[in-house]
Amino acid sequence: MKITQIRTMVLTGTDPSGMGGIPRPWSVMLVRVDTDSGLYGLGEAAHWQRGYFGVREAINYVGDRLIGKSPFDIKRTIHEHFYGALPPHKPRTLPATVVTVGPIVWAMSGIEMALMDLVGKALDTPVYNLLGGRFRDHILVYLDRSAPANKADLGAWRELALECRESGFKDIKFDIDHTAPDKTTDVWSRSMDRAQMRAVVERLSVARDAVGWDMNISADCHMCYDVPTSIALANELAPLKLKWLEDPTPVMNQDAVRQIRSKSPIPICVGEMFTADQFRSWVGNEACDIIHPDVLFTGGLTETAKIAELANLHHIPMALHNNSSSVGVVAASHVAAATANFIGMEYHFIKADWIGKIAWRGGRPLIENGHVVLGDEPGLGLTLNEDVCRAHLAEGETYFG
Fold first, then answer.
1. Weakly modelled stretches of the chain, pLDDT under 50
2. Which of 68, 264, 354, 370 is an S-S bond match for 234, by CB 3.0 to 4.6 Å?
3. 138-385 sits in which CATH class?
4. pTM exceeds cut of 0.90
């Protein structure tokens, strides 16, 4: 079996409840790998609101190099494009000095996902078996609701939290930077004043009171704050028993996050755009409590599984960051199924029905009672929903189903 073509397709539409509860445009890039056998695989690559800076071009570049190659050589394909190979390997590969971040990694994430789907179909086995088999078939989803549109209305916080619980979710997340923006006095300062911090604590306390103590709540800082603010915030929020505090400061500064972790009563979670090399450093230097990789940014499912195993050796749990459609959600679920130290996978688009219905899983809904439930279908077990895809094709795009 040889690869004959790699194609992409962009879909676009609206997410009616984006960050801060505000509507936003959203795009999804799907990847298809075709072979001379007639089998094909589906994947998803990072795209989001306005395109992801060279990802499609990188997919086209890698795709041209993979024509005529075996789809089974997944780890070799990743290694070749992340780290390179020595001469006289042909065709000439990227040199091993290339930094393994950015568009080439994000492109490989989508291609590798499609290759894993394809190989699973060829072997008539689910992708989680390609990753060593499953620990579980019910994959816990944590629902990211950011914040209600009316941030100052405490009733809106209560209603939003209760809506999540009544929808079957037992794990939710809110965004600190969107919790009390009405109290921001200086948009350039990474410091939070006492009035804003009191408002953050008050509003999240309402959510906690609404759902009780058996429901997990996490909070994302989106790398917005400085070290003193992050430490103070963690201590102020400690009575709410949060599952984690995410990305308190810009994460390129590992020393700053390690300092916060040493003084935070709440576990610190990082890593949504890290690759394996970055996680190796963060885990090895004890700079975080929870890792948070995303299959769209690590280089794919096999790289994410490798990251999970690294963390597990250090007895660190793994949550999965996720901004994907149903394609990426199900793909990430296969990694979660095969990962012992998995503690939850993110989902945003509970109000954007089209994003969760881009691909079908037979008659099974994407999320059931707060979980993605995996079956034993080969590959990812997905079929594109032609009606949804055609209705949301971006201008100039062609349906490839």
1. none
2. 264
3. alpha beta
4. yes
